[in-house]
Every structure is written in structure tokens, then in C-alpha cells.
Design a protein that fits this description.
Layout: H1 10-26, H2 28-48, H3 58-70, H4 74-88, H5 95-114, H6 126-146, H7 154-165, H8 169-188, H9 190-215, E1 217-224, H10 228-237, E2 243-248, E3 255-263, H11 265-278, E4 283-289
Antiparallel strand pairs: 1-3, 1-4, 2-3
Helix pairs in contact: 1-5, 2-5, 2-6, 3-4, 3-8, 4-5, 6-9, 8-9
């Protein structure tokens, strides 16, 4: 698939702005997911991070520190930083990534401004606040990332460095965020910096869990001598495809067929019940597939 590149000028900017409603219409499920995820993330920042003077990661973390120390507007800092980063990495990003990054950054900027001063938990259990806040932000961020959309910020820098120099994304993201947390200790104090670190850790775990929860599928292997009725059941009743391979029993020495398919948890249970009732002599193995990309599953984009 051909990937388009943009030159950073007024003409290309107008082109992107015109494409925004087209993209939203063509990918409305992604648009809804981005709106929902960004709303949850922004609420987590404004209700569980800022009121308690916790540091955060990435561009949001830098913006939060500027707010604590100099009183700068968090939404404004986020917007300015992301515009600068997009301008810097313009040539390295595909059209889809650029457009959706503009959408997600614009939404988060608007929502943080809208939610500024929203009610927050009245408690002195700071560790609990940090962990819950991190989980909320991670869930929102995971929803966005799960749909192949960047939330901007330092993600742009890391993706650029990975493409240009082949650096490890997780490794360098960790280093950058540790620098932000280290600097925050001089502004919010060591205790709040440590709580911020706990929040970031909870956020990263929730991001991974959220993405895995949507992408996980059951990988099913069925060994049988007569795969035809099973293939028909999978196609007609479960709406899934399957692959049939020739197999040879290592112990029995008998020829058989190996049927492979990828199903949801519910579909795997339905297949199990079908086999138990109609083909009890088959052999079935079920395992988790952490990510499935392709037709009928997650998009390659």
C-alpha cells in the first residue's frame, strides 16, 4: 500500500483540514473510539493528576510541570508542543497518522480546557488516587492506541527515532519519562514524584491490558479424520474461516487432518460443545493469540 507524505506548508495544511471530515465519515468507529478514549484520558489527567500535583509522562507530563512551576495552561502547552512535534516529524508520518493525531490532540486540548476545575476525589489516600488515576488514563489511552491512533506528544518522537535509527520504543520511552519524573521531584517533591511514578506504572499496565483485551483471540487446533462437517459448522454457525492441513500421528502412525482457526472466546466454547456432542473422538487444543491482524480481525493500518 502506498504511503503518502506531506510537505509542511499552508497548502498541505488546508488539504489535511479538508480531509478531516472525510476520514471521520470513512472511519467513524475509530472516530467514536478516539472521542471516548480521549475523554476518559483527559478526565483522568484533570481529576486525578493535576489537583494532587502528581507528575505525568510525555508531553502532558512536561505541560503539568510547567503548570505547577510557572502557571502555564496545560491545554495550551499540550497544543503548542504537539504542533511543534508534528511540524518536526511531518515527513516521517503517513497521512492517516497525521490526520488522526491532529484529531486526538485537538480533542484532548479542548477537553482538558473544558474539564479544568472539574470535581476530584476528596481523600488523603494518595497512593489509591495515583493508582486509580493511572488506570483511568491507561484505559483511555489504550482505547485510542488500540485503534492505531497516536495521541501525539513524545509518541511522535519515539516513532520517528524508531523509524530513523531503529531504537527500541519501550526502552527510550522509559528513559524519557524517567527524566521527566526526575525533574518533577524538584517541583512537586520526592513523595509526589514517587506517587507519579506509581501512576505511570499503573497506566502502562492498563494500556497493555486494554489493547490485549480487544485483540485477543482463541487459536484452535482440531485433529480429526473428517474435517468437512467441522469446517462447515465453523463457516455457517460461527462465521469464521479455517485452514486444513495434512497431519500424521507420531504415535499411531495414522493419517489425519489438522484444522486451524481463530475464534472469540464465546465461539471457541460453541465449537467445543459442538465437537463434544457430534465428534467426541476429535482432539482439540485451545490457546490464546495475543494479536490477530488481517481480514475479519484487526486492521493492518
Amino acid at each position: 500500500m502506498h504511503t503518502h507524505r506531506f510537505e509542511f506548508n499552508k497548502r498541505s495544511l488546508k488539504k489535511i483540514l479538508k480531509m478531516l471530515p472525510i476520514v471521520a465519515k470513512a472511519e467513524w468507529p475509530t472516530f467514536l473510539a478516539v472521542v471516548f478514549g480521549t475523554t476518559v484520558y483527559s478526565a483522568g489527567v484533570m481529576a486525578f493528576t493535576v489537583p494532587f500535583r502528581f507528575p505525568d509522562s510525555g508531553v502532558t507530563g512536561i505541560s503539568v510541570l510547567l503548570n505547577y512551576s510557572l502557571g502555564f495552561s496545560i491545554p495550551l502547552c499540550v497544543a503548542v508542543a504537539n504542533i511543534a512535534l508534528l511540524a518536526w516529524a511531518w515527513r516521517e508520518l503517513s497521512a492517516r497518522v497525521v490526520i488522526w493525531t491532529v484529531v486526538s490532540v485537538g480533542l484532548s486540548t479542548f477537553l482538558m480546557k473544558l474539564l479544568d476545575g472539574m470535581p476530584y476525589p476528596d481523600t488523603d489516600q494518595m497512593l489509591l488516587v495515583a493508582l486509580i488515576g493511572g488506570a483511568i488514563k491507561g484505559y483511555g489511552g489504550g482505547i485510542v492506541l488500540r485503534n492505531g491512533v497516536s495521541m501525539g506528544g513524545l509518541d511522535i518522537v519515539i516513532l520517528y527515532l524508531q523509524k530513523k535509527y531503529g531504537v527500541e520504543v519501550g526502552k527510550y520511552s522509559f528513559y524519557i519519562n524517567m527524566c521527566i519524573i526526575g525533574a518533577s521531584a524538584f517541583i512537586v517533591g520526592v513523595e509526589n514524584a514517587m506517587l507519579g511514578l506509581a501512576s505511570i506504572y499503573a497506566s502502562s499496565l492498563m494500556i497493555d491490558s486494554t489493547i490485549a483485551a480487544f485483540d485477543k483471540r482463541r487459536q484452535v487446533f482440531v485433529v480429526t479424520r473428517d474435517p468437512c462437517p467441522i469446517v462447515e459448522f465453523i463457516s455457517a454457525n460461527l462465521g469464521r474461516g479455517s485452514t486444513v492441513l495434512d497431519a500424521h500421528g507420531g504415535y499411531s502412525g495414522e493419517d489425519s487432518k489438522l484444522l486451524i482457526c481463530l475464534l472469540t472466546r464465546r465461539q471457541a466454547v460453541e465449537l467445543k460443545h459442538y465437537l463434544a456432542e457430534n465428534h467426541p473422538k476429535t482432539f482439540m487444543v485451545v490457546s490464546d493469540a495475543s494479536e490477530v491482524v488481517g481480514l475479519g480481525f484487526k486492521s493492518w493500518k
